[in-house]
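Regression report. Comparing outputs from two consecutive submissions.

Submission 1:
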Amino acid sequence: MSTPPSSQTTQEFFPSPSPALSLSLAGIFRDGAKAAAAAEVAAAAENMEVEDGEEASVGGGGSGGRREGTVEISSTENSGELRSSRSDDEFVETEDHDGGGEDQGEGKKKKRRKKYHRHTTEQIRAMENLFKEYPHPDEYQRQKLSSELGLHPRQVKFWFQNRRTQIKQQQGRHENALLKTELDKAREENKALREALSKRCCPACNSSLAQELEEEKQLRAENARLRTELEKMMNAVGKITSEEVDQRSTLHFFNGIFGLSQPEAMALVSQGLEELKFMAVSGEPMWVRSLETGREILNYEEYKKTFPFRNLISLYGKGRYLEASRATGIVFSDLPRLVQSFLDANQWQSMFPSMIAKAAVLNLVAPGEGPMKDGVAQLMFAELQMLTPMVPTREVYFVRHAKQLSPEKWAIVDVSLDKIEITIDVAQIKCRKRGSGCIIEDQLNGHCKVTWLENIELQQSTVHHLFRPLLNSGMAFGANRWLANLKQSCERLVFSMATNVPTKDSIVSPNLVFDFLKDDKHRNEWDAMASGSPAQSIVNLAKGQNRGNAVSIQTIKNGSIWVLQESCTNSQESMVVYAAVDNMAMESVMAGGDSSNVSLLASGFSILPDGVESRRLLNTSKPDDKSTEGGSLVTYAFEVLEKNLYAPQPAAETVELVNSVMSSTLQKIKAGLNCTNE
């Protein structure tokens, strides 16, 4: 090894001819001591192999510790060959041109002249093929490939290193290009949104939001003006006795709103009224009694012959069918109150809370006469429901017409028109009424005889198989259910105003499921709040002749929990609704305090018949029991307070808890009723 240079001069170190090591330093040593140390390190690294993909680096240079270059170490076999920095198919070879021999005393050396060897096409192709399969070949693979191609193993090694570096750079450039493209798109979208926000313009329809708001204000003002004119016209119509002037005024109003003229609309309503009166009193062959169930069934062929102008199913496409039913009963109410309840949307909805989800009076078709509005016709909307998510709701638009047939008889008829309003597409309506309604006869003793007729044209829809028999039987939205709910509502209204209603419970014979759920003696068998503790009823207020229609307060766990429960039942359906309440708040309400301050989280059950026809009992403990009802469809609703009120969806833990409580409750009810899963 030659003598190290002084600290004032800069030298490049070359490998000695023998035996040993080739060392090239790209950096500049400004300190003699550091140069000597670097030479010793290079000598100690003799016969040392550089790991695949790594290069030995030595930091040289000034006092700042900045990296000046790299040191490449090779064995004596490769003393004349260095790694190329140009491309992956070039290799550098250096030669010593001393000329006058080595003179270490003078401290001068002549530089070698570099030669670049480019790999042949066959060599590159062979290395490319191996690179596709093995990007990181081992020592054996490099030795084998170098012998086949006539290259040195380190040439092969450096070529693979350079190739991997090139691929990484290409991938990086490609990813950068993709990211740049996405960034440009995001910038363009952001720019467009900012422009739309500044211009208050909707990107979808390219219309000005400010202009739409201004148009909406104008429409609201126009609607307010029309309402004012309508009120003035109605007041004027009430004062005018001339029928001709009355009809002309109503016609002018009606033509301004509907696609049909007022005479055309009233003609259709009159046809529906005649249809209602005929079908309410007719027997066979229009109505045929079923031998299996005993229910009346509409003879559709006879219906088409009697009312050919109503055969409009083909006009609205295939998949439509008629659903008709009829029922008669006595209700506990006077005639004027019933008529008023049918004409007021809010009262009508409150009269049938389990059947009507929404109700509204949209427009007035024809005004009525007198205090009971004889002859009034109004356009209405209703959304009919069952208390289960398995059956879709029915939305229906219809004109309701109230007509006095005799001093003691009124008719309330509902008819859907072919043309309702410009904003309503009749073709999309899946439910239409044909001459439906009721005929009310005053019995002069606080009771009325009601004949209810339901004649609905429907679009076929998919229904859960459990509820299909119930719908096919007509019990879901049929006349029997409407009449049963009407009886229950009238009884509730009468009992709410009565002062001589007994508050103690008496023995009744309700439906088995309904009786099990409402009874405080069985609450500990299914209610999760009870946790097996017995319940006790401390208050029971009746709401009808049937003891099942009542409001009660039950205590659980020795009075620590109060449960407010309401139970309702009729011949078609039953409900049990309950909620845990604060005992102090309930005591305040019972003493005459404000009930609006009591917070409730209501849960409960809806109980419906399954629609399966009644069958005769083969073995019964009671000799007078000749038949029994079919199965029951129980829908359970459970309400719980979510911790995070602003979360878009309930937490998974809450959903899991609710599912667990509801499943456990239903299983306990089945066990309490000795039900088996079949």
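Submission 2:
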Amino acid sequence: MFVGRDTEAKGLLSGIGGAGSSRQAVGGAPGVGKTTLVQSVKAAAIAHDYWATQGRIPFYPDDSVERVLGRILEGIYEAVLTARPHAAEQPAMQRAQQYVRAFRLTGGGGSLSVAGFGGSLTQTTAAITPAAGLILDGPRVIRELLDLALANGRGVVLHLNNLENLSDKGVANAADILRSLRDPVLLQAGLHVLLVGTAEAVTAATTAHQQLRSVFSLLTLEAMPLEDVQALLAARYRHLVLDARRAPTPPAAPDAVATLYPLFHGDLRGLLKALEEGVSLLVGLVGDAPGAPVALRPCGPRCSAATATCSGRRCHLRASGSSRRGPTRSAPTRPRPRSGCGRCGK
């Protein structure tokens, strides 16, 4: 489910559709919605005959050029196999499969004996080092896979995720790896790369070298507007409703969402988690009606839903429209809510 970010999604799709190959970096604060946006863009690209999977290609702090190249080859192989399972018997796919298996079994390095290594399929067995073999032959194998994708579709879309992990050892390390892969891999026709990470990581890595600045476009995601957040929640409620004949009742009132929204500074994941935990804790403790949404209610003049602090002593969470404080101590099966402010605990 994807709501909002229409402009950003259209821009990324235009970048993919407007060139034979593309490299777009998506940066933003943690939890702002980068991965969700890119996943939705991939889904839209698949609908337009591009090949991709729902998987993400991760970065790790100890990565090298060989390891990143191996994951890219694996990602392209999986995209082709997902879109055209019958293509597994083609020579290009079998050659790629040897590298993918070697890469998986050795964790990106080491020595392994595999059959059929080389320019043509044979029954001989040769001892190879996947790292060295990938550097020498990996780009050619990737080219063969992309030719296969272009002959039957419009190309392959890859999602490289969490660039900040790679730049933990320094921006120069991440930038050098990307620069090393620029000509042999990233510029190949038919390959569309979506590079995702924090704004600091993607900006620093893609602008460190002139060779990267000239081929990467950068999109920085800002916090999702409150209106889009409310629309996202409404869409989720409609999606999760058990009886489609009944209108969904929001578990959290819009004013509660509006109160919490600025506290998370654009961290949509954190906001949704807080709402989920808060509503779960209060189920059965508040509200006159079973379907009443949970809302924040001020205790008096000194407690305002528009502020993040509160000096009141008796405010509490109530269901929307409720005028009572919930169950009393005489109801043994329903625990009594804590006294004090539902927002600051005083």
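Expected: both submissions complete independently.
Actual: both completed, but the second showed a warning that disappeared on reload.
Relevant detail on submission 2: The CA atoms of residues 109 and 131 lie 5 Å apart.
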